[in-house]
Amino acid sequence: MKKVIVTGGAGFIGSALIRHLVGNQLAEVVNLDKLTYAGNLESLQSVEKSPLYHFEQADICDPAAVKRLFDDFQPDTIMHLAAESHVDRSIDDPLCFVKTNVLGTANLLQCALEYWRPLPDERKAAFRFQHISTDEVYGSLGATGFFKETTPYDPKSPYSASKASSDHLVRAWGHTFNLPVLISNCSNNYGPFHFPEKLIPLVILNALDGKQLPIYGKGENVRDWLYVEDHAKALWLINEKGVPGETYNIGGHNERTNLEVVNTICDILDDLRPKQQGKYSDQIVFVTDRPGHDLRYAIDSDKLQKDLGWRPEENFDTGIRKTVQWYLDNAWWWKPIREKKYAGQRLGGKA
Question: Are strands 53-57 and 27-33 parallel, antiparallel or unpaired?
Fold first, then answer.
């Protein structure tokens, strides 16, 4: 059984990955997480008592803490998800994103390199540094076309620029030092345990609270949506079968405009928890667009499907209904966040 360090394991995608690995007894995992505002150990309640799960609170920018964890745990692989990840917050505080996403990744790479170099040949060959990134590094698409692994980088926000930088660092450590690295770039994730600053959980919870549902611009911006549990399974498949030095795009093949997403959520809520008067879509308002808002993202994941045999199990219609139902059933998880951390206010208003 592999021993895996998952960075950012208390976050949205990281916790889904750990639930998959530990819940299915696929690996022994250390969750390395600083527990910033978006980190929530409650997302790991289902696996926290497993002997295969361990938690280490530390900052990926701390060389001594990271080195100590490598030395003590002796991992076979590191799956690096820790990142500041919200575009709107990157507009308000870009240097925070540079520190965590760029300098933190560089620190992890160097600590991994120093750990990896003296390993016995067999363990050295099996080791992987797996970096989980975003399709936003590619910039913005027009009305047609898809991001491929060969698409030139053209990041448009402080967030995407910081992730593009970290991607380049991972490739540099692989090329220069022969560290066995893997990179994946994914489309927009959604599903259970999603911190409610992001579009889908924000709309669900603001709708239930009777608040306005703000849509940037005309709601024409398009995203390709990927159910988070499908993403977690893809990440482990890449770890097990991916070729070191390669990049794999992970997409859900579920393009929707933001307005379509919001209207779909409203329709599901009308069905599952109807209002006494009117419809949830009555709460929709259009607001000034986000600075530098990319028009369209869409992922071509043919390489992952053909080379490694991955297929998403959820389409958007099935996944979004499951997601809405999860939020209706799990107020215990999101209510403390809304009360103490983030109440649904707009972010990223600076320009």
Answer: parallel
Of 187, 325, 186, residue with least CA distance to 255: 187
Quick check: 284 and 261 in contact, CB under 8 A?
Answer: no
Q: Does domain 2-195+226-253+292-314 bear CATH number 3.40.50.720?
A: yes
CA distance 299 to 301: 6
> For 91-124, what is each residue's pLDDT tens digit?
989 999 999 999 999 999 999 999 999 999 999 9
Q: What percent of the chain has pLDDT over 70?
A: 97
Instruction: Choose, from 135, 197, 255, 294, the residue flagged as catalytic.
Output: 135
pLDDT tens digit sequence for 41-54: 999 999 999 999 99
Give the distance, in angstroms, between the CA of residue 28 and the centroid of all CA atoms in the same chain. 21
Tell me, yes or no, if 294 is annotated catalytic.
no
Residues with Cβ within 8 Å of 230's Cβ and at least 6 positions away in sequence, in order, are 252, 312, 313, 314
In this predicted model, what pLDDT tens digit does every residue of 131-158 receive, in sequence order? 999 999 999 998 899 999 999 999 999 9
Catalytic residue among 136, 167, 230, 314: 136
Alpha-carbon distances, residue 185 vs 154, 197, 242 (angstroms): 14, 21, 14
Q: Is 91 exposed, middle or buried (0-12, 13-18, 19+ CB in 10 A)?
A: buried
Residue 351 has pLDDT above 50, yes or no: no
Residue 330's pLDDT band, with cuts at 50, 70 and 90, is very high
Domain boundaries, the chain: 2-195+226-253+292-314
Question: Could you read off the pLDDT of 181-202 as tens digits, one per residue?
Answer: 999 999 999 999 999 888 999 9
Decide if 159 is catalytic: yes
From the list 53, 115, 159, 297, the catalytic residue is: 159
Q: Give CA angle at 248 (242, 253), nearest 5°.
A: 130
User: What tokens appear for 189 in the block?
Assistant: 């994730």
Annotated active-site residue 136? The verdict is yes
C-alpha–C-alpha distance, residues 163 and 169, integer Å: 10
